[in-house]
Amino acid sequence: MTWLDLPDDTLFGLDNLPYGLFSTPTDSRRRVGVAVGDQVLDLAAALAAVGSTHAEVVDSGSLDGLLAAGRPAWDAVRAELADLLTDPARAESIRPLLLPRSGVHLHLPFTVGDYVDFYASEHHATNLGRLFRPDSEPLMPNWKHLPVGYHGRGGTVVVSGTPVVRPCGQRKAPDEAAPTYGPSRRLDIEAELGFVVGTGSLQGTRIGVDDLADHVFGAVIVNDWSARDLQAWEYVPLGPHLGKSFATSISPWVVPLAALEAARVPLPGQDPEPLEYLRGREDWGLDVELVVAWNGEEVSRPPYREMYWSPAQMLAHLTVNGASTRSGDLYASGTVSGPRREQRGAFIELTWGGAEPVTVQGEQRTFLADGDEVVISATAPGVGGGRIGFGEVAGTVVPAAP
Amino acid sequence: MTWLDLPDDTLFGLDNLPYGLFSTPTDSRRRVGVAVGDQVLDLAAALAAVGSTHAEVVDSGSLDGLLAAGRPAWDAVRAELADLLTDPARAESIRPLLLPRSGVHLHLPFTVGDYVDFYASEHHATNLGRLFRPDSEPLMPNWKHLPVGYHGRGGTVVVSGTPVVRPCGQRKAPDEAAPTYGPSRRLDIEAELGFVVGTGSLQGTRIGVDDLADHVFGAVIVNDWSARDLQAWEYVPLGPHLGKSFATSISPWVVPLAALEAARVPLPGQDPEPLEYLRGREDWGLDVELVVAWNGEEVSRPPYREMYWSPAQMLAHLTVNGASTRSGDLYASGTVSGPRREQRGAFIELTWGGAEPVTVQGEQRTFLADGDEVVISATAPGVGGGRIGFGEVAGTVVPAAP
Fold it and tell me: How far apart are CA A164 and CA A171, in angstroms?
């Protein structure tokens, strides 16, 4: 029982406590905050107020210090937070350190290292295969043997709310003789979950498939903005590049892995059985439900529990070749799409390449127009019996630069 | 005329002056150094000795400060270096700041941001196309319209001399029913040049094809180690991932762009003419000659002047979608291969997929064995009429981790 006055149905109860980075209109310092109810707790100040030895690690202007501190510190800070928010004797000293969330500005919470994007939804990969390669088998022969992924651009990961400038580049439709240059005409989203590495690993070593929780600090919602016309022309044979590298947005609150305990479920099933390094003893499917809203209207509910590959398998695969990982590395799941149309996490799938528009605020729509806003939110079961929230990742498309 | 006693044929004369990061057995501080002859100059100390205002910017434990300082600072420091190494009145104060290069330890000189690898040699792309996709046209339709590239792993860029652990992963030969797990059996190199971004650019903006010198600080040799069996199985449809991400080695000396003035040559010719954003007024072909030595024996001399796309075109393309760049971003050319067999910069090409071994120290060889060492060096014409050197990037293969 907390001494805070939280509504029963809050998505930010004591079983969530995600971390972010905030400043206020009157104090531009970037401080680590914890979302609780509709407030944000100044974490360093709160830990200092209760004499915690961890106050210093979170007092560094970003989440970087806490990420690097490792799992024992993550567990200890979470326990201290639970304690100071439930002990009535703390109320007087902690209450002044809570600010209304509506009044703070949220920043990119950590320094992004390498960004890898996977392709872990069988429904998404099958749909994209049909759309990009209509004359071939939609799934490549490797797809059910390994979590296919590629490196994206870490430097263009931005926090929710950052405007997305429509990218320019080369487009060539199959019936055109040569490519032309100009703003993307097929600007799309990809609704994903992203996993934030806290404790890295050395070059030449691997992270085992059962060691996820020792390395991953938490999860965010990702919108991997995609220019489908740029991507379709450029992507052979080395994969997506400019069609993706202009912007990737993440939600400002990092939900700790510990808060997702009640969301853990078995994977839907893997056939053939993967190679041993990808076979885990623990369930790391996640029953997270995403919601995609286009100009305020819900258009899709992608179910993360349908994903073929788990985040534990992704990390084991990412490092099986001895690639090092660093605190702040981000890896994302790839588009979350379920089997049904209204569960597809990208507009190219939802509108089947533009052939089957969706109705948004009364209009028939396919890809993104300038001025459009996309908001992706997510919730999951919490250990308290209710639900927890990831908050949202929002972005508005602004016209291409001249 | 320098007051230093330099051999006439030194590759590290006053027309070169590349920057690196060194420590010594008796002083573990990492200091920015400049290679001159067979010595290294302690740059911050030298600039301080002559009262330069730039001493502070290079006294930060890496090249990061100088990279971020921008082109006017790069030009000023280079002019100050020329001055203090030619003015006899400076000899007495500067001489004690010169250390034998053979006695210093060289470190990764800058913090690597995003790493992008291009694919800019027509000979290499054609050879790889034939080897990876024998039943198709070797060059994809996009190849002559844009510099194809993809993101690699910035966190696994290492300095010359770092051992390379043989990567493990999934391999599946075309005649095998299912993939198996184990150490790569087709470990290869890629001899490349890499370009180091000093002055970055904001998200939503572009770097014009004629603005290379305002953004790129200098160049290094790159060995983009490649596990061809891992790569062949994983790379469709999202491109290379684990086949490349285990290690990328760079030479420790960053050759300033200004030192490459005499190496600038026209490109071999582009047909069709590229789109306008890729058409530059200035020549940025580079007459750099690479030499690949395998266990001490020269096996290839890849000519950079044969590259189809210029580094100015690569940077313009990389940012045409508004992707931001940061100080420390690294982009590499892709394998440098010329038209002749002995000019191929990867062993998969040199040995035609292993079918045509080369003789190394009397043995028939195809891919890399544990214990093998590869050293790639490079030279170019200097503005002084002789040649300048990039030094070398070396790496020894060590057995896969258990």
Answer: 19
Could A242 and B321 be called an inter-chain contact, meaning their C-beta atoms sit closer than 8 Å? Answer: yes
The catalytic residue positions of A are: 124
Phi first, then psi: give them for residue B345, nearest 5 degrees. Answer: -95, 10
Parse chain A into domains and list their residue ranges. 19-106, 115-398
Choosing from B124, B145, B215, B241, the catalytic residue is: B124
Homologous superfamily of B115-398: Fumarylacetoacetase-like, C-terminal domain (3.90.850.10)
Q: How far apart are CA A168 and CA B277, in angstroms?
A: 11
Token pair listed for A317: 């695969």
Using a CB-CB cut-off of 8 Å, the residues of chain A touching B158 are 203
Give me B282's structure tokens.
């200035």
- Measured between alpha carbons, how far is A54 from A48 in angstroms, rounded to an integer? 8
Q: Is B177 an interface residue toward A (CB < 8 Å)?
A: no
Residue A218 sits at the vertex; the CA angle it makes with A240 and A100, to the nearest 5 degrees, is 110
Q: How far is A284 from chain B (nearest CA, A)?
A: 22
Instruction: Please give the CATH superfamily to which domain B19-106 belongs.
Output: Fumarylacetoacetase, N-terminal domain (2.30.30.230)
Instruction: Give per-residue pLDDT as tens, B299-312.
Output: 999 999 999 999 99
Q: Do A150 and B152 touch (CB under 8 A)?
A: no
At residue B173, the pLDDT reads 86
- ipTM for this model: 0.97
Q: What is d(CA A310, CA A313) in angstroms, rounded to the nearest whole number?
A: 5
Closest CA to B174 of B132, B139, B236: B132
